[in-house]
Every structure is written in structure tokens, then in C-alpha cells.
Amino acid sequence: MRTNIKMRVTTMKKDESWQLFVKNAGDVANLAYIQPLAKENARECGGLPLGITVIGTSMRGKTRVEVWKYALDSLRRSEPNNKNVKDKVYSVIKWSYDSSESRDIRKGILGEHDTYEQAYNRGITLIENLKDACLLEADKMEIVDCVQMHDVVRDVARWIASTIGDEHTSVFQDGIGLTEISHIKLLTSVKRISFVSNEIECLPDCFPKCQDTKSLLLQDNEPLDKIPHKFFLAFPALRVLNLSETSIRELASFINSLCQQRSLILQSFFKLTELPPVANLHILQVLDCEYTKLRCLPQGMENLTNLRLLNMLVPDLKSIGKGFFIKFPSIEISSDQATLFNSEIPRFRKLELYGLPELGTLEETQRMWEHLEELKVIACDGFRKLPLSIKTSKNIKIIEGKSQWWSQLEWDDDNFKSNLEHCYKKWQNRWQKDQS
């Protein structure tokens, strides 16, 4: 968009929204038995003038409570309740999405032959394009690297995802207070299922078979504390499973039967202390266990030869044994954030060690680090010796860490230390960077 001046147009405040809604809906919105529902409908518009105007106008003269309840239910389910809403609100926002350079996001971020860094850069580019199209905006809390989406835009996004092609391929039941899902009817052709941010307490032992489902999102269901063994038999083709921010204490061996799994996300699993064997997950690419209480790597890790991302804090880990990284020829970033390339001896370019206070050594061959360019060591107080030598440090450009850690490092040669002084960079957290 070619503009000389960019001006942010904010959404309307609560009182302003209600006044605009009444102006378009008419006196019916102030009827005693209608007003509570009218205000709920107005609130669902999220202060977006276009949505308030169109939805208010569509409800003008409607005096039946049932009609207002149906409209509210449709808004909460991200479905246009009439053709006017669809044509004037949903279709306009969909046009903005279709016209943006990020419309290919539905194809996914991590391609079959991409490095993780390439996928990450593509993801950032897609997000920036969506922000340029006003479909995403910077988080109001000004949290670094966070964005937010307007409620109405989110509704349209769900509507688009649910109606791609001739059949409903996606089911989104997010944030609507579900406590159980056994009553929900799904088509066997559904490909994406999301029950995010509910209050689900248990999953059914028997669930209708969804043979085409590729993605199942169950994160942010805090009451959920166990998974029946047979539940996942309903999803034989599952590729993405997210169980983050639940209270699950144990993952039974069913995880090992999800042979098509590409991405297993278990963030903030505070009550889980160990993972079951994962030897059968041969094509798993992402294993994300950030912010968990895991104390060891699961059995069968050596079989995950397609792993691209391993994010796992193991605070009690004292050493990373020789040959560990060689077992993963495709891995790019791990809890030690390492970038590799396919070869008999992986050639690391980046290595990040974070939150491993007991880690003392890396027992890999020196040849492993010949191509190392960046090294970051944070909260690893026991790690006192770099995995480098004068011979293997020719490509190093950045060594980042706290000043106290750098001053306490042990060196075999004073000349070696002086050679690397220019590479040292004092680590600052994001808040410190923003203040500087």
C-alpha cells in the first residue's frame, strides 16, 4: 500500500459501539427483553464499525428473542447469520486475505526440504504481510514478537478454514466453555479439529473415527488430566497434536502408535515428568516440550531421524553424550538450539544452551564444531569450558552469555582466550534490550 503517512484507526469503545449499534438496529434494541441480547451481539463485533453497522442493520425490526439468540450463537460460532453479514463483512475481510501475499499460509510453514531457519523466516514474512493487510496487529501489551487478531477477523478466518472446498473440513470449538466433547458430531472427512481454551475435563473412550484428520488442538484445557488409551485410535492419520497447558500427568504408550505424527507439542506440561517410548514416530519433525518437568529424554529417541526441532529443557542433564547429535541428521534446533546439515559428521552453525545448570560437558568430537558460527550459553552455570579449540574456532563470530559466565570460563591457552575476546557479546534479555 503506497502511503506517505500511516495512521492507526482504532476500534470503538464500548459506549460508542452500543450507540452505533442502536442507531442501525433501531428502537427494538432497547426493548427490555431484547436489550441484553442486543448488547451481547454488539459486544461480539469487538468495536469494529463495519461489523457493528452491518449486524445492527440486519437485526432492525427483529422482535423475536429466538432470532436474536440465533444471531448471537452464529457470531460466537464464527458463522454469518445472514447473507448481508456474509457479503458486507465476511466477504470484504476474506477479499483482503485473498489479496494479501500470505494467502499461501494454508499450505503450511515447514516444507519437506526446508531448513528450520528457512521455515522460521517464511513464517515471519507471512506474519508481516498479514499485518500490512490489517489482518493482524501488534500486541497491545507490547510483548516482543507477539501479535493479536481482532475478534471479527478471527471469526472470518475460522469461517474461511471451515468452508474450503465443497465440504466442511475444519471444526473450531474454541473458548466456548466445553467441559466434554462426546456429544459433538464430526464428519469423517474433517481435517482440522480445535477445542482450544475450553474447560474439558475428560476425553471419551470411544470417539467417531476421523480417518482424514491431520490436526488436533487440545491446548489450554487446564482441567484435562488424563487421556483414555483408545481415544487416539479415532485419528489414524494425525500429523499435528497439541496438548499444551493441560494437567495431564501421564502419556500412555498410545503416543507411540501415532505413526503419521509430524509435530507433537507438549508445552507447559507441569505435571508430566517423563515421556513414553517414541521409537515408532519415525517421521516426527517437531518435539516441543518447553516448560515441562521432564528429567530425561524418552526411550527410542535414536529412531527419530527426521527430527527438525527438539525443544526440551532437562535441568538435571549433566552431559550430552558422544554421538547424540549424529543420530539426528536432519535436526536444526534443539534445547541446545543447534543447526545441522546432512553429513556423516553434522556441521553445526548455531548452538544455544539454555537452562541446563548441571551441564558440564559436550562429549562430541572436535570436528563437530569446525563450522560453528554462533554460540549462546544462558543459565548453564556448570558449563565452564567451550567445545572449541584454536583449530576448530576459525568460523566463530559470536559467543553470547552473561559476563559472569564469560569471566569464569576455563581456558587451555591464554592466547586462545584473547583470540576470541572480540567474539564475546554480553547477553541481555528482551526487557533489557528494549530499555537500552
UniProtKB/TrEMBL annotation:
GO terms for biological process: defense response. The keyword Ligase does not apply. Keywords: Leucine-rich repeat, Plant defense. GO terms for molecular function: ADP binding; ATP binding. It comes from the Eukaryota. PANTHER family: DISEASE RESISTANCE PROTEIN RPS2-LIKE, NB-ARC DOMAIN-CONTAINING PROTEIN-RELATED. This is Uncharacterized protein. It comes from Capsicum baccatum. The lineage of its organism: Eukaryota, Viridiplantae, Streptophyta, Embryophyta, Tracheophyta.
